[in-house]
Design the sequence.
């Protein structure tokens, strides 16, 4: 049964602002993991495949952690927060990582550059910026359908929605978002 009519989903500029906010949130976790993975792999002289594998793994760890933490602070257990984070961030992080790492591989010499090289840091910054631009429409599409960060929104205390206060609409959205999280936990999409 589709309960999507229980909530008024954002549209237009509000939807775009929410998508940008969700993407910045995702970018923060991904960037920390990505930079850490690239720095470790490069410092240890690992191959491109090993370095990228570590960077991607850490990007997912940090990306999910940046969602799980606030969800748990809202009162949910770790066990309940994990599926919410997976539902909210998996597609966004995946798109960001595919774009980011593809660019790092395509920029000549970027993966071989040393950590003290402007080429390494410039390519990484450029890759993350492009990944952000590509991921915003993905998050916008997800949120417009009540997926992605729309599921986690209720647990952030309205932090991604621009401070609506405690309106009836917010209560309805929290109820619908909580129901969406229940559906995710129980395997219904």
Sequence:
């Amino acid at each position: 049964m589709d309960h999507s009519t229980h909530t008024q989903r954002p549209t237009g500029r509000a939807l775009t602002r929410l998508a940008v906010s969700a993407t910045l949130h995702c970018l923060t976790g991904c960037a920390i993991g990505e930079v850490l993975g690239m720095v470790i792999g490069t410092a240890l002289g690992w191959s491109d495949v090993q370095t990228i594998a570590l960077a991607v793994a850490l990007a997912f760890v940090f990306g999910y952690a940046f969602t799980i933490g606030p969800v748990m602070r809202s009162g949910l257990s770790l066990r309940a927060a994990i599926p919410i984070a997976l539902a909210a961030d998996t597609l966004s992080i995946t798109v960001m990582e595919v774009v980011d790492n593809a660019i790092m591989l395509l920029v000549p010499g970027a993966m071989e550059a040393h950590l003290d090289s402007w080429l390494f840091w410039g390519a990484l910054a450029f890759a993350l910026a492009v990944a952000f631009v590509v991921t915003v429409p993905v998050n916008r599409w997800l949120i417009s359908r009540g997926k992605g960060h729309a599921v986690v929104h209720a647990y952030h205390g309205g932090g991604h929605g621009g401070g609506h206060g405690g309106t009836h609409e917010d209560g309805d959205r929290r109820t619908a978002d909580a129901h969406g999280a229940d559906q995710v936990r129980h395997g219904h999409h």
In short: The chain is about 70% helix and 0% strand. The mean pLDDT is 76. The helical segments are 12-43, 48-73, 78-106, 118-144, 149-152, 168-185. The two ends are 10 Å apart (CA to CA).
